[in-house]
TrEMBL record:
Listed GO biological process terms: peptide metabolic process
One Pfam family matching this protein: NHL
Native organism: Panagrellus redivivus
Residue ranges constituting the Copper type II ascorbate-dependent monooxygenase N-terminal domain according to the UniProt record: 36-142
Family assignment from sequence similarity: In the C-terminal section; belongs to the peptidyl-alpha-hydroxyglycine alpha-amidating lyase family. In the N-terminal section; belongs to the copper type II ascorbate-dependent monooxygenase family.
Reactions catalysed according to its record: a [peptide]-C-terminal glycine + 2 L-ascorbate + O2 = a [peptide]-C-terminal (2S)-2-hydroxyglycine + 2 monodehydro-L-ascorbate radical + H2O; a [peptide]-C-terminal (2S)-2-hydroxyglycine = a [peptide]-C-terminal amide + glyoxylate
Co-factor note (free text): Binds 2 Cu(2+) ions per subunit.
PANTHER family: PEPTIDYL-GLYCINE ALPHA-AMIDATING MONOOXYGENASE (PTHR10680)
GO molecular function, one term: copper ion binding
The keyword RNA-binding is assigned to this record: no
Transmembrane portions of the chain: 693-712
Name of the protein: Peptidylglycine monooxygenase
């Protein structure tokens, strides 16, 4: 029986993961083109999967990753003339059928890559070599728990042909490394025969464990100039080339990989296996777009055309070891621990309180969890009359608030209180001074309570008891409440009939009120207007960046506002969920949101996660022991996520724990806490500035496919590009365990390139 369930789940996994997301949005004249996993669950160590999509015509000016190093080892985006397979998703290392060009690579939480002004990668236009995009994702490990991945890359396409096109030139050596040497050199060299001047602006090095230094120089006349030099044991990102550099016709280009083979007893061949080696230097450059491609046979040097010149003249400084940088070396090597989110507890009661429907949850400043439940009351069809008046005006007789202390292994019961005070409990919040705020859809009130021991005293009451209304003095089934830690002002999501958010001062004066009902015509997801609601159901604040997140329940999205009520963006995708019941902003982690009901499209309920700095959900998780039935509230703190359910049979409290290497994942988050940008509505606006200022050369575009053909011709290598472990492996594009993780300590310093630096 278990087997049947497992097989069923596997089928589901297959079905879901075989789709990929490609979504288009527009911002000004730029088109945004998403290439994303559609909820893939890696099944093995070093799981390689690819999604393929036909390229939309345009010019890539920016790559915006939506991925996390705690889940993903690296992502490579290839441009192909033909994808390896006709399907849009496959497992394994295959990428293109025929020529392939790496357009972008991502690892270690690198932020967006914006190309210099007037520089772009052309794709999809008539005559372009790139007609398909294949995104290859390398998962180092299966996830812990039931986790689906939605990582991807947002491409920003300009419709305008740029003055310069970007390309990548690759030096690659196929020579084996002799054993027993402290320093062994693999030399590569080629003359540049093209006409257009090349402007290198970034480089990347790649070897396996034996590499010590990789450098490249250009010799023009008698003068040798360094293109780049890096320790390949450091995280293998693209590094900016500091000095403006030009490579002209007949210049001599050379690169050397220095290896340490002193502990080897046999020659080590080049190849993809961990026991093999690789020797690569990638040079990213731009050139005038109107001139013919200087590398019709591939932008690659797989040769040593003037070995004597290299042997005699190669500058010694290109071969010396770089100063040790233990942190980077560590980061480059650490094989990450598996990532995951796993259910740890599923509780029907805490202490002597058996949960009724759990409608709300909140943490106080001591990280105690307040659980707001309905005791024996159930909100049913006859709970309200046609005028939204509560029919049975008897309160919940049980203690409606239960306080627990999550201590890692369990949730310790602290106390419970609040009997006979609430009618249909809904939302709860606890401020830093310990005041408790509740919304009661039964009374249509929002109340601030002073809690002394286990007794509650109302200190501020908003709304008129049992009287629904649309005006400033009334609510109608108010759903969510959140309080700013800055000034104690109160935000209320109101709620089931009013479709608005109200902002009150600490003393209860109405400051602002916004939102309209979504019209029936705008219910279609693509036509949803920002700022219009269909049941604002939960609300969560990010005080640091003054962002407010509202679960726009029946519109199936999270809307992002600033504190002035300006709608900034929305996060949603009707293919995966049709409603969003609850949303929580968790400092240090980002956003968690959960739908409350299956839809006809998607029957599986997950908690979705939008990591800090991202504009879209990147992964989702659900229990392993059972499926969610009616999740109603999600709240997260530290490494734990709590979900409350409202099943008719009573409430259920889940605790999930995140498995994430300490310090990982968080590192990237410094880059854009405020940058939750739109994904659905098309109006990508405020908030995105944080990200776009990170102009970082991370990785690369490169034209390798043609180069490979050329190389193969020269070396009489026959390669079926679908076959794993081919020459492709040597170029560092193929499945291999490079462990080039993670920790982006260096990314701000030596990897950041401003557009202005490049010209
Ligand atoms: C879009 O293109 C038009 C015509 O080329 C130009 O006038 C306009 O400024 C562009 N708009 C943006 C937002 O770039
Ligand atoms: C490679 O270059 C280095 C440095 O110039 C030199 O010492 C070595 O002899 C060269 N190796 C070959 C095989 O030419
Ligand atoms: C969160 O972390 C803090 C500090 O490490 C700890 O004191 C607290 O108990 C944790 N809270 C939860 C809910 O795990």
């Amino acid at each position: 029986m278990h087997t049947a369930i497992v097989i069923g789940l596997l089928c589901l996994v297959g079905a879901v993961s075989a789709r990929h997301i490609t979504k288009r949005e527009t911002s000004g004249n730029e088109t945004i083109f998403n290439v994303q996993m559609s909820g893939y669950t890696p099944t093995q160590d070093d799981d390689y999967v690819s999604v393929a999509i036909r390229a939309k015509p345009g010019y890539i000016v920016k790559f915006e990753p939506a991925a996390g190093a705690e889940r993903i080892h690296h992502i490579l985006l290839y441009g192909c003339t033909q994808p390896a397979f006709s399907s849009d998703f496959w497992k394994g290392g295959a990428t293109c059928n025929g020529p392939s060009h790496i357009l972008y690579a991502w690892a270690r939480n690198a932020p967006s890559l914006e190309l210099p002004e007037d520089v772009a990668f052309p794709i999809g236009n008539p005559g372009d070599a790139v007609q398909y995009l294949v995104m290859q994702v390398h998962y180092a490990h299966p996830f812990v728990g039931n986790v689906r991945d939605f990582s991807g890359i947002k491409l920003h396409l300009s419709p305008v042909k740029p003055k310069y096109v970007a390309q990548v030139y690759l030096f690659v050596s196929g020579e084996p490394i002799p054993p027993g040497l402290d320093a062994s050199y693999n030399n590569m060299s080629c003359f540049y025969r093209g006409d257009p001047v090349l402007h290198p602006f970034a480089f990347r090095t790649h070897t396996h464990a034996m590499g010590r230094v990789v450098s490249a120089f250009v010799k023009s006349g008698d003068e040798w100039t360094q293109i780049g030099k890096r320790n390949p044991q450091w995280p293998q990102l693209f590094q900016k080339i500091e000095k403006p550099l030009e490579i002209k016709k007949n210049d001599f280009m050379s690169a050397i990989c220095r290896f340490d083979s002193h502990d080897k007893t046999e020659a080590v061949p080049m190849g993809s296996m961990g026991s093999n080696e690789m020797c690569n230097f990638y040079m990213m450059f731009y050139r005038l777009a109107d001139e013919p491609d200087p590398f019709p046979y591939g932008a690659m040097c797989g040769d040593n055309e003037a070995s004597n010149v290299v042997a005699k003249e190669y500058p010694a400084e290109g071969l010396t070891l770089l100063p040790s940088h233990p942190e980077w070396e560590h980061a480059g090597h650490q094989a990450g621990a598996p990532f995951g989110v796993k259910d740890k507890l599923a509780l029907h009661q805490l202490g002597d309180v058996t949960f009724g429907q759990i409608s709300g949850m909140a943490f106080d400043s001591n990280d105690q969890l307040y659980i707001f439940h309905r005791g024996s009351k159930v909100w049913g069809a006859y709970t309200f009359d046609a005028n939204n008046q509560l029919t049975d005006k008897t309160p919940v007789s049980e203690n409606a608030i239960v306080v627990g202390n999550p201590n890692g292994d369990s949730i310790e019961f602290v106390k419970s209180f609040g009997a006979d005070l609430f009618f249909i409990p809904h939302g709860i919040f606890v401020d830093d001074s310990g005041y408790v705020y509740t919304t009661d859809v039964g009374t249509h009130q929002v109340i601030k309570w002073k809690l002394s021991g286990s007794s509650l005293a109302a200190v501020l009451t908003l709304g008129e008891r049992f009287v629904p209304g649309p005006d400033e003095g009334h609510f109608c089934k108010p759903a969510g409440v959140a309080v700013s830690r800055h000034d104690g002002s109160i935000f209320v999501a109101d709620g089931y009939c009013n479709n608005r958010v109200l902002h009150f001062s600490k003393s209860g004066r109405l400051l602002h009120n916004w939102g309209t009902a979504s019209t029936a015509a705008s219910r279609e997801v693509s036509r949803l207007t920002l700022g219009a609601f269909n049941l604002p159901h939960d609300i969560s604040l990010d005080d640091e960046h003054e962002r407010m997140y509202v679960a726009d329940r029946e519109n199936g999205r999270v809307q992002v506002f600033d504190y002035a009520g300006n709608a900034l963006s929305a996060i949603g995708d009707s293919r995966f969920f049709g409603n969003v019941y609850s949303v929580d902003y968790c400092p240090g982690h980002g956003l968690f949101f959960v739908p409350g009901l299956p839809t006809s499209e998607e029957t599986e309920l997950n908690v979705y996660t939008v990591p800090l700095g991202s504009s879209n959900f990147q992964y989702a998780f659900r229990p392993t022991q059972a499926e969610f039935k009616r999740p109603h509230i999600v709240r997260a703190r530290n490494q734990s996520i709590f979900v409350g359910e409202i099943s008719d049979g009573g409430g259920l409290l889940w605790q999930f724990d995140m498995f994430e290497e300490a310090g990982r994942g968080k590192k990237a988050m410094h880059m854009g806490g405020a940058a939750m940008v739109s994904s659905e509505s098309g109006s990508v606006n405020a908030g995105s500035s944080t990200q776009s200022t990170f102009v970082v050369i991370l990785i690369v575009g490169l034209a390798v496919g043609m180069a490979l053909l050329y190389y193969m011709r020269r070396h009489r290598v026959t390669v079926n590009s679908r076959t794993p472990h081919t020459l492709l492996d040597r170029a560092g594009f193929k499945p291999l365990r490079t462990d080039d993780l993670d920790d982006d300590d260096d990314s701000d310093d030596d990897l950041a390139i401003k557009a202005s630096d490049l010209k």
